[in-house]
Write a structure and sequence with these properties.
The protein is α+β, with helices and mostly antiparallel strands. The protein folds into two domains: 173 residues, 2-Layer Sandwich (D-amino Acid Aminotransferase, Chain A, domain 1); 167 residues, Alpha-Beta Barrel (D-amino Acid Aminotransferase, Chain A, domain 2). 27% of the residues lie in helices and 29% in strands. The chain contains nine helices and 18 strands. Strands 1, 2, 3, 4, 5, 6, 7, 8 and 18 form a nine-stranded mixed β-sheet that branches. Strands 9, 10, 11, 12, 13, 14, 15, 16 and 17 form a nine-stranded mixed β-sheet that branches. The longest helix has 16 residues. It is globular. The chain starts with a helix and ends with a strand. Its cofactor is pyridoxal 5'-phosphate. Belongs to the class-IV pyridoxal-phosphate-dependent aminotransferase family. It is an enzyme of class 2 (transferase). GO terms for molecular function: branched-chain-amino-acid transaminase activity.
Amino acid sequence: MADALASQFAHHPHPAPTSAALRDAAIADPGFGKVFSDHMVSIEYDADKGGWHSPQVGPRTPIMLDPAASVLHYSQEIFEGMKAYKQADDTLALFRPTANAARFNASATRMAMPHLPEDMFVEAVRQLVHIDRDWFPTVEGGSLYLRPFMFATEAFLGVRPATQYKFLVIASPAGNYFKSGAPAVSIWISDYSRAAPGGTGAAKTGGNYAASLVPTAEAFAKGHDQVLFLDAVEHKWVEELGGMNLFFVFDDGTMITPPLTGTILPGITRDSLLHLAREEGLTVREEPYSIDQWRSDAASGRLVETMACGTAAVVTAVGHVAGPDGDFTIGSGGPGQLTMKLREQLVGIQRGAIPDTHGWVMNLG
């Protein structure tokens, strides 16, 4: 099946690939999201031509769009974030790519966009990793960040779902997500709302991130690393950070994470940590947790750790929380034992240092 899928992709050689010297300099310490590999994968969709067609791998080039393209006016756009990891034997592997494919299609459903077959999604990612594997960064802990995305291309100004779309995958060598590389991050409690019930909060769509930019800039201006969003109705329940889910660890060996009620992105790292924490014997509950309770539990010492998680940052300790009503510190303000243990377990599985007993890792050779 994989060979049949692979044979459908046309390959177009890059006329002027980056020289080895320039590439090596770029991947030595690439940071996050600023350096890009030579190639991209593209697949076209046209409802009047049978759906998905013309899968190809070719040079990473600018995108030509009609000024009336639906994405520019009605924001029909979704994306995923995932990584390729280097294994101990120097092969590359993906972590839970079918979960990314399933979430991609869940986002497509909410945004009135066509589903891309999951096996085609995974094959598109595999194709790009294969051709640009030399872009894997040499920095310690580096990875090849992969960004599959889809947007509406039909030139039409009526308010309805488009009939034409483009799916692309690009790659970016990645180092540390947070500039400081700090072992624990500081977050700012925003007065803004990220998502409301019945909205698009559970979809990985650009509009959700656009809505977070002003409060994120506010957090940065106040010296914090990330922004925290509370619920849009009562403005009291903790939901998520600008791009990460949250977990709260207590002194009795229990852990809480906010439930997936349609306003929170269902993180794949979040789901992985739920599995790993329960295997560690923790009682993990998915239930609402208020900002007032968070502050109270931190002050009493009942709360011993808070961790944020996501594909880009993996697992990161939250050490300090601030907002208009004051600030508080979790534990000693640094990473806790469980945060570090779960991070080491997850990273170990992703990089092949710890046996994968869940079937999460897909080796690409």
